[in-house]
Design brief:
The chain is mainly alpha-helical. The chain is built from six helices and no strands. It has helices spanning about 5-15, 20-35, 40-50, 55-60, 65-70, 80-95.
């Protein structure tokens, strides 16, 4: 019988062990948002928040209820730009990351 581990536990462990992985997740979430894939971006960001910060700490840092943050970052969530900016600000600060967008000419 093969031993398996929950995907979310694997993400939490890897984010805590490899700061570069956490930064790559943030980059992926931002890229997905900018490319119009908001549903997937919210899910990646939710997993990153859960692994790197925790929703209770994010709630305290953003002055928003944890339950509301969970809903915002769900597949069908719909955070406002202000709320998304607040979430990203906290995540960026925690990871020590600066986000810069640049345009790439489409092929």
């Amino acid at each position: 019988m093969a031993l398996t581990r929950d995907f979310k536990e694997t993400i939490v462990e890897r984010v805590r062990r490899e700061p570069a992985f956490a930064k790559a997740m943030l980059d992926e979430a931002a890229t997905l948002f900018l490319n119009g894939e908001a549903d997937t971006a919210r899910l990646v960001l939710r997993d990153l928040v859960n692994a790197a910060i925790g929703f209770e700490a994010l709630a305290a840092a953003t002055d928003m209820p944890a339950k509301s943050l969970h809903r915002m970052l769900s597949k069908n969530g719909n955070p406002t730009m202000d709320n998304l900016a607040a979430i990203l600000r906290v995540v960026r600060k925690k990871l020590g990351v600066e986000i810069q967008a640049h345009a790439v000419k489409a092929a």
